[in-house]
Design a protein that fits this description.
- The complex is a heterodimer of chains A (66) and B (449).
- With 66 residues, chain A is an all-alpha fold.
- In chain A, 59% of the residues lie in helices and 0% in strands.
- Chain A is built from 2 helices and no strands.
- The relative contact order of chain B is 0.14.
- Chain B has 449 residues and is of the alpha/beta class.
- Classes of the chains: A mainly alpha (66), B alpha/beta (449).
- The interface between A and B is large, with 38 and 47 residues.
Chain lengths: 66, 449
């Protein structure tokens, strides 16, 4: 299944599952926005992050503890 | 020249010395809003009685009796913020003393009006708002930038010399770039955020939009509650990441920014160092997901099915899309944040600043906010966000400095520094101003010249 069609399929099922109403214009926006950001999201999904230590209670006003 | 056209610091000095009558200054500000705002739509509310009360009760302070504006993202005691929208899902907005209001009041400033913003702060363009779009004073048919669209248009349009905005994913720096202004995104947590409707934010900060670095320093010091000292650093190590932050910019933007970089290097007797950032391509998706997670608690089916039809269709669609994003992606975004923060910390051991164009192309048309880049046509939002969000994802400060024109529209260089180095950023911005004889901070839109 092509990426766009896969998203459309996911979208339809997710909207129905969660009971979220969306008209045609809103669905078109969702598809358009997703098409812009999907490549980045795919990179994020596929990135090897297993060895990255999470930052616990990060203080974003300062550099991370090292 | 009217006293209204002076920088904030000179207005404050003139009032202090008795050379400027503060009552007349406020009247001039309100009159100018009345004259110019119909075509700028930078201002969405004035309240002369409250403004005059602030003036009458203004304490001595660094902005004593100086008129400023505040973005529609902050509550005032007499007016709830509207965030540029008909409603905010799941949030009740009420009048009150927000942190920026208190900081301005306690510094003696007079809030003359509320400035427009992009609906829900959701775009870098400023072309959508419940009040109608604000217009760029450099070309009224072009985007002023967002989400602090009104602050950008107001300062560039000469309504005031300083506005308090907010920067969630670049929302101060983009309008500063599009409108030829200086805008500071402070280090996370340094500027007051009390009363913001996203109380748990880890990406949004309040900050100044002004004409130059000295005024930005003054207004930032008020928002920080501490004076940001001015200095003249030398020997700065300026890091440059070419791909994609420089390479995928419109030629006119890249050339003006390269000239500015060289001018800055010469002025501070510094060096330009080519550096890299591992996982740069994960920064944008991670930042988008971390930011959206802050509001996700309100994205329930009940709230989403009750969205106001007056909310723009793009935000209605985006909000519903956000509610359906897989949790695993968001969890990975926080993992990326941890890694990028560590990588940046190591990078800032070797350099003092990072530099690249604030936005990859000048302000696009309001009706079609697309830009042309070497990589092909792109939405302005996608291009801008790529350049700006790293500061919000990681907490570091950034400043946008005007450095030229491309086809008559402002071009800007962004400087980023390590956590807490806000004053250094403003020092560098002032060094850039000196190196260019203040040419670009003194430029005014032709219609106002």
């Amino acid at each position: 299944m092509e990426a766009g069609a896969a998203f459309q399929s996911y979208l339809e099922r997710a909207l129905e599952t969660y009971g979220i109403e969306a008209d045609e214009a809103e669905r078109a926006v969702m598809a358009g926005v997703w098409s812009i950001y999907e490549p980045g999201m795919d990179l994020l999904r596929d990135a090897d992050l297993d060895e990255v230590e999470p930052e616990l209670l990060p203080d974003l006003s300062a550099p991370p503890a090292r | 020249m009217s006293a209204l056209d002076l920088p904030l610091r000179e207005q404050a000095a003139g009032i202090s010395s008795g050379e400027i009558d503060p009552g007349k200054l406020l009247d001039a500000c309100l009159a100018r809003i009345e004259t110019r705002n119909p075509e700028l739509n930078a201002v969405v509310a004035t309240f002369p009685e409250e403004s005059r009360r602030m003036l009458d009760e203004a304490p001595e302070g660094p902005l004593h009796a100086v008129p400023v504006l505040i973005k529609d993202e902050w509550a005032l005691p007499w007016r709830a913020e509207q965030v540029g929208a008909a409603s905010v899902p799941g949030v009740r907005l009420e009048p009150g003393e927000s942190g920026p209001y208190r900081a301005l009041r306690d510094a003696g400033a007079v809030i003359a009006a509320v400035a427009n913003m992009h609906e829900l702060g959701s775009s870098s363009t400023g072309n959508t708002s419940v009040y109608g779009a604000a217009h760029n004073p450099w070309d009224l048919e072009r985007c002023p930038g967002g989400s602090s669209s009104g602050p950008g248009a107001a300062v560039a349009g000469g309504l005031v010399s300083g506005v308090v905005g907010a920067d969630g994913l670049g929302s101060i720096r983009y309008p500063a770039a599009y409108c030829g202004l200086t805008g500071l995104k402070p280090t996370f947590g340094r500027s007051t955020m009390e009363g913001h409707h996203i109380a748990n934010t880890e990406t949004i900060v309040s900050g100044p939009l002004c004409r130059d670095a000295a005024d930005s320093r003054l207004l930032a010091s008020v928002l920080f509650g501490e004076e940001l000292p001015a200095g003249r650093p030398s020997g700065l190590r300026i890091g440059v990441i070419r791909e994609p932050y420089w390479s995928d910019c419109a030629p006119g933007v890249r050339e003006a920014s390269e000239s500015a970089l060289e001018a800055l290097r010469g002025e501070v007797d510094g060096e330009v160092i080519e550096v890299g950032l591992p996982d740069e391509d994960l920064v944008l998706p991670a930042a988008l997901l971390v930011a959206q997670a802050e509001e996700a608690a309100h994205l329930t089916p009940r709230n989403l099915n009750a969205l106001s039809p007056k909310l723009g269709v793009i935000n209605r669609g985006v909000l519903k899309l956000r509610a359906l994003l897989p949790l695993s992606l968001t969890a990975r975004a926080f993992r990326v944040r941890a890694k990028v923060r560590r990588d940046l910390a190591e990078l800032f051991d070797r350099i003092d600043l990072l530099a690249w164009p604030t936005v990859p192309a000048v302000a696009p048309p309001l009706t079609d906010p697309m830009i042309e880049l070497p990589s092909g046509p792109a939405s302005a939002d996608a291009g801008n966000a790529r350049q700006g969000v790293i500061a919000n994802l990681t907490g570091i400060p950034g400043v946008s400095v005007p450095v030229g024109l491309d086809a008559g529209m402002p071009v800007a260089l962004q400087l980023l520094a390590g956590w807490g180095a806000d004053a250094l950023l403003l020092d560098a911005a002032e060094a850039l101003e000196r190196a260019t004889d203040r040419e670009f901070v003194e430029l005014r839109p032709a219609a106002l010249a």
